[in-house]
Amino acid sequence: MKYLKVLLIFFIFFGCNREVAIRKPNVIIIYADDLGYGDVSAYGLGKLQTPNIDLLANNGSRFTSGYSSSATCSPSRYALMTGTYPWRNKRAKILTGANLIIDSLEMTLPKMLKEEGYQTAIVGKWHLGLGNSKIDYNQRISPGPNEVGFDYSYIMPDTQDRVPTVYMENGRVKNLDPNDPIEVSFEENFEGQPTGRENPELLSMKWHHGHDGTIVNGISRIGFMKGGEKAKWRDVDMADEFLNQAKNYIDQAKEKPFFLYYALQQPHVPRTPHPRFVGTSTMGPRGDAILEADWCIGQLYAHLKQNNLLENTLIILSSDNGPVLNDGYYDEAVEKLGEHTPAGNFRGGKYSLYEAGTRVPLLTYWKDQIKPSVSDQMVSQIDFLNSIASLIGSEIRTKDGMDLADVLFQNEGVGREEFILEAQTKTAFRRKNWVLIPPYSGPQKNSFVNIELGNAPEYQLFNLEEDSSQQNNLAQSHPEQLKIMIDRYQTILNSN
């Protein structure tokens, strides 16, 4: 009888703990666009104040070594969705009117969650391609978000600076008039359509490089578009539009576990904050757009609180890559920067193999479950799929991702030892405190955006513990460490 009592106590204790361990909270990923490490005031490096993001950071886990997988958007989003290194997929690069780069057979974060009974939705920027042939925006486009695991999708197809400038809901352009069909081209303009290059007098925002195509709302874009007048968005309303759609989804999904991928457009170009935010930062449209994004996050938080959902909702906030100032438009981002440091104390930025390209804000928040902490453990967005799977009791795992549930959600354990980062199809390697950048041809700096890319004719080796700004190349003075890094880097690159 004594042994039976012991066994009963054992099963009750450990059974209850297992139940707690595999709770299925709602999961919200808030994904900013081009938000730098120094753009979030909780990190204590820049001059902007982001009180709503800080609320999450100060009451959850703030990671000082949190990374996107790439220094540009489409590859990072691919890695987040699939738990797979983007350099393994040759199509995972910055997209312009391209087809879907996620294979229909590939495991994705929303697919995994659906298998565990979750409702799933994306609201915001997609930029992972649509369809599998020539895209006809006048018909339902498939495959897209709905075919890779999302029950509901409300998206912009690519980016705010590209055509078509329309919202899409579950594969169809919203508010499309069939009598005014959409035509899109990235090769040549349509007869009679004004462009930024030929009609600068029509612009409210002057283009700097690359954005000289079709004009919508006084802003010229990448590419050419004709028709779809009733479907075109108003740029200044975009933040409100996506926020309202996110809140509406929460309202209809809140009775069961849900996953919401809330992909913000800020502070990507063109920066078009709503008039109520214009001038609030003193840093021009970029600063204003970041404060608008912070407000949106605060509004979403308040909505969760109002609906008594905070106690059972895990929030993850990060950015797809590092910051950039002038990324195609004259919007005073450079002139009004002042003492603000979007990249913090790191070198590079968007497009760069240096730290600021991929080291980004990364926060996890779950009321009363994640204790306030600052973690120096190395984590990557490529680990989200495996870590969330572990948290909710799924057995699904991807090869490149790691299970860092303890680190991300419980303030425990050890983070990554190593990973490969990517920038514009080129790769570099971090292992512990060391970073290796192989030799690459090409310009050392992107002159358009004024960012160092990491290209050099020789190997670059940095010790981040002693030199976080990557000023001292140790490749020649530390040959043994250089060899260790090269050998391990090549081993991972050559793995299947």
List keywords for this structure.
single chain; 496 residues; alpha/beta; Alkaline Phosphatase, subunit A; Arylsulfatase, C-terminal domain; 10-stranded mixed β-sheet; 9 helices; 18% strand; globular; disordered N terminus
Percent of sequence in beta strands: 15-25%
How many domains comprise the coordinates? 3
DSSP strand count: 20
Q: Roughly how many Å apart are the termini?
A: 55 Å
The first-level CATH class of the largest domain is given as Alpha Beta
Order of helices and strands: HEHEHHEEEEEEEEHEHEEEHHEEEEEEH
Q: Which strand order spans the largest sheet, edge to edge or round the barrel? A: 6-5-4-3-11-1-12-13-2-14
Mean pLDDT across every amino acid position: 95
Name of the CATH homologous superfamily of the largest domain: Alkaline Phosphatase, subunit A
Helix count?
9
Rg, rounded, reads: 23 Å
Shape: globular
Helix content class:
10-25%
Molecular structure report:
It is a single chain. The protein is built from 9 helices and 20 strands. With 496 residues, the protein is α/β, with parallel strands linked by helices. It has 3 domains: 26-173 and 234-417, Alkaline Phosphatase, subunit A (3-Layer(aba) Sandwich); 183-226, no CATH class; 420-493, 2-Layer Sandwich (Arylsulfatase, C-terminal domain), CATH 3.30.1120.10. A hairpin with a 2-residue loop joins β8 (215-216) and β9 (219-220). α5 (238-253) runs parallel beside α6.
Topology, element by element:
Elements: H1 2-21, E1 26-32, H2 51-58, E2 61-67, H3 73-82, H4 109-115, E3 119-125, E4 152-156, E5 168-169, E6 172-173, E7 183-185, E8 215-216, E9 219-220, E10 224-226, H5 238-253, E11 258-263, H6 284-306, E12 313-319, E13 362-365, E14 373-380, H7 384-392, H8 405-410, E15 418-423, E16 426-431, E17 434-437, E18 445-446, E19 451-452, E20 460-463, H9 479-493
Parallel strand pairs: 1-11, 1-12, 2-14, 3-4, 3-11
Antiparallel strand pairs: 2-13, 4-5, 5-6, 7-10, 8-9, 12-13, 15-16, 16-17, 17-20, 18-19
Helix pairs in contact: 5-6
